TrEMBL record:
Domain ABC transporter: from-to ranges: 11-240
A Pfam family per the record: DrrA1-3_C
SUPFAM superfamilies per UniProt: P-loop containing nucleoside triphosphate hydrolases
Protein name, UniProt field: Nod factor export ATP-binding protein I
Record SMART domains: AAA (SM00382)
Keywords: ATP-binding, Nucleotide-binding, Transport
Length: 312
């Protein structure tokens, strides 16, 4: 794979596949990920996000395909990549029986950081991630948000060029998630490129670009705005009585992608092959046209339209 033509890409994958027996965990995945950006993998559990990340970090050999990460060919140059990347797994992977500071000291030794450089960097990270008052606390006794910040500090201790985060906020509350993303944007602003997997729609909307994965296949990619603008469906909200019955009626129609109730409204996705969605709904229901409103698609709408999650 020739990377000379696209020097601002930190990751290029071409026809990347990984099979486990008959299971195609990743199937012919193409990726071009820009430098100094946050790129997201969006998809449900089991869609292949972790498998893809493990191949892109050099931890798992692909069945077929080509990978270039930071100009290095994988899996051949996996050891060289290790010193230039950080990896934060979904499950807390530091040592519960060590303190915050001891965990960071241990990670520093792995990367050959010692003496005053080690002390300076650990003090900096303790301050950045609000762990100064927790440095003598055992990791096992920390809250989910505190452990998350410690894991991010450990993953960035050696100032990696590229950071991989595998569903990093699955065990924390919304406030900690929001603060975590502010920290990611700080890292990005300082020159770190980031790939993050998530199944949260609001997190995916924060990414500069993202790919939607389903059953190991990339169904769509682009900026969140591009994906929402290019959705292959009309989105209509209905305010009427008897929404449960109306939903059951609509989802039997082949031109309806999905229907889901949001409070007192029914949100309906209609295939864009239907040129007049309001007229279509009037024809198939006895509801007046003033009860229908065409609305802006959300990223969740895009996800449902792109994947097999088409009936709710």
């Amino acid at each position: 794979m020739n990377t000379d033509a696209m020097p601002d890409l930190v990751i290029q994958a071409k026809q990347l596949s990984r099979h486990f027996g008959e299971l195609k965990a990743i199937d012919k995945l193409d990726l071009n990920i820009d430098k100094n950006r946050i790129y997201g993998f969006l998809g449900p559990n089991g869609c292949g996000k972790t498998t893809a990340i493990r191949m892109l970090t050099g931890l798992l050999k692909p069945t077929s395909g080509e990978i270039q990460v930071l100009g290095l060919s994988l899996p051949k140059d996996a050891e060289k990549l290790r010193l230039r990347m950080g990896y934060m797994t979904q499950k807390f992977s530091l040592y519960n029986d060590l303190t915050v500071k001891e965990n960071l000291q241990f990670i520093a030794k792995i990367y050959g950081i010692s003496g005053t450089a080690q002390k300076s960097r650990i003090d900096e990270l303790l301050s950045i991630y609000g762990l100064n008052q927790k440095q003598q606390q055992l990791a096992a006794s920390m809250s989910g948000g505190q452990r998350q910040r410690l894991a991010l500090a450990a993953a960035t201790l050696h100032k990696p060029d590229l950071l991989f985060l595998d569903e990093p906020t699955s065990a924390v509350d919304p406030e900690n998630r929001r603060e975590f993303w502010e920290q990611l944007f700080d890292l990005c602003d300082q020159g770190t490129s980031i790939l993050v997997s998530t199944h949260y729609m609001d997190e995916a909307e924060r990414c500069h670009k993202l790919a939607i994965l389903e059953d190991g296949v990339k169904r769509a990619d682009g900026t969140p705005e591009q994906l929402m603008n290019n959705i292959a469906a009309h989105v209509v909200e209905i305010e009427a009585e008897g929404l449960r019955h109306l939903k059951q009626q609509l989802v039997t129609l082949p031109d309806i992608v999905t229907a889901a109730q949001l409070g007192a409204r029914l949100r309906v996705l209609i295939k864009n092959t239907v040129s007049d969605p309001i007229g279509f709904l009037e024809h198939h229901t006895d509801i007046e046209s003033n009860k229908f409103t065409i609305v802006r698609p959300s990223l969740e709408d895009v996800f449902i339209a792109c994947t097999g999650s088409s009936r709710q």
